[in-house]
Each structure stands twice: as C-alpha cells, then as structure tokens.
Amino acid sequence: AQTVTQSQPEMSVQEAETVTLSCTYDTSESDYYLFWYKQPPSRQMILVIRQEAYKQQNATENRFSVNFQKAAKSFSLKISDSQLGDAAMYFCAYRSSYEKLTFGTGTRLTIIP
Amino acid sequence: DTEVTQTPKHLVMGMTNKKSLKCEQHMGHRAMYWYKQKAKKPPELMFVYSYEKLSINESVPSRFSPECPNSSLLNLHLHALQPEDSALYLCASSQESRPWVGYTFGSGTRLTVV
Question: Are B105 and A45 inside 8 Å of each other by CB?
C-alpha cells in the first residue's frame, strides 16, 4: 500500500503572509496523481489543487501553488497572501490509475488576524 | 450538477435503532465511496462501489451495510451501532476513467450514537 506523510500536524500563519505545508509519499508507480484537499469546519472536503506526476511543471491555482519534486517524492503546498477563509485541515492525497485515493494525516492551518 | 448530496446532515440514533444515510450524485460517475472520519483524522475508506461491484474494507463491522440501488445513489444502512461509531460519514464519487480529476465529496453526515 502507498503511504502519504504530512509531518506538520499544525501550522499557523499571519494573515497576508505565505505558508508552506509539507507532504511526502512513497510509491513504486511512475504514473500517479497528487492532490491537496481542504476541509474547513463546514466539513466538506474541497479539492484545492492537483498535480499529474508526468508533468514537470508545478501546478498553480490563484494563491495556491505546489512544489512537486518527483525524485524526492515530495509535494508541498504554498499558500500566498493567506486569508482568514484559508483556515482549515489540509490533506495531501495520492492515487494511481489502479488504486483508490490515499490520504495523509492532515495539517491544521490557523490564520492569525 | 457538480455536487454530491448527502442526507441527513445530522443524525442522532440509539444503539438499537436502524437508520440509513443517503448519498446522491448526477455527474455520471461510476464509482462511489463511503468514508468514516473521526475528529482531526483523515477519512478512512469503508466501501467502494465501482461499476456496480462492491469492495469492502474488511475492518468495517457488519453493522454497516452499503446498498447501491443505481449508479447515482448510494445508501449506508446502520443497525445496532456502538458509541464508537459516532463520526462524520463522507460520501464521494469519481470517474474512474479520469483518475487525474480526483474525488468529489459530499458535506457529510454527522452521526452521534447514544
């Protein structure tokens, strides 16, 4: 089974600053997909950003970007210009074409006004 | 329609009750999932229906039973639950032919067993 590790159980950042959440994974596959999901107190799991392993270019979605290091099996999420609405649990997730989604343990992000 | 709808949003049940959770999607996804999530933990996969075939996480007790009446609906039947089954139950769907899209999640049912 694949494993996904998030080494930061909690992080905090000042509003308008930048924060980076870490994620590492273990796989023997060459073709796979990585995701960051956000779960605010409203409970719904919302897809923030995704990366296809065969793509060398790092994905970007507005204030959210990733640093994908395939050789190091690292997939970090950078949030720029942090806003109060970014406060949530963030889960890194992995899947291949043949496997179901595997989640990391999550990072709770607090935004300090 | 790009949503997964779960009902009810909250449920309180006694240990002798029988209840059902409902999940519905109209995105044409052929895979649907039930997850159990405890506070501050990642979701744990319970069941998968993919092209009408059921896959079970063998650690899930038999007091939980899924049902897939059609490709848009997924139910979770609950019977004789224990207090430790209190959790957030999430439903998700995906299009297996497009794994890069990820899963679409519902907003969950908060279950309390008393």
Answer: yes
Plot region of B52 (φ>0 → left; ψ -120 to 50 → alpha; else → beta): left
Tokens of A42: 């409203």
B42 vs A35: CA distance, rounded Å: 14
The predicted pLDDT at position A41 comes to 87
- Alpha carbons B18 and B67: distance in angstroms, whole number: 14
User: Where residue A1 falls among pLDDT bands split at 50, 70, 90?
Assistant: low
State how far the Cα of B105 lies from the Cα of B78, in Å rounded to an integer: 20
Q: How far is B106 from chain A (nearest CA, A)?
A: 6
Nearest to B88 among A43, A104, A108 (CB): A43
| pLDDT of the residue at A53 | 94
**Both tokens of residue B60?**
């899930």
CB contact under 8 A, B90 and A103: no
Q: Hey, are the CB atoms on A100 and B99 less than 8 Å from each other?
A: no
Which pLDDT tens digit goes with each residue over B50-77? Answer: 988 899 999 999 999 999 998 899 999 9
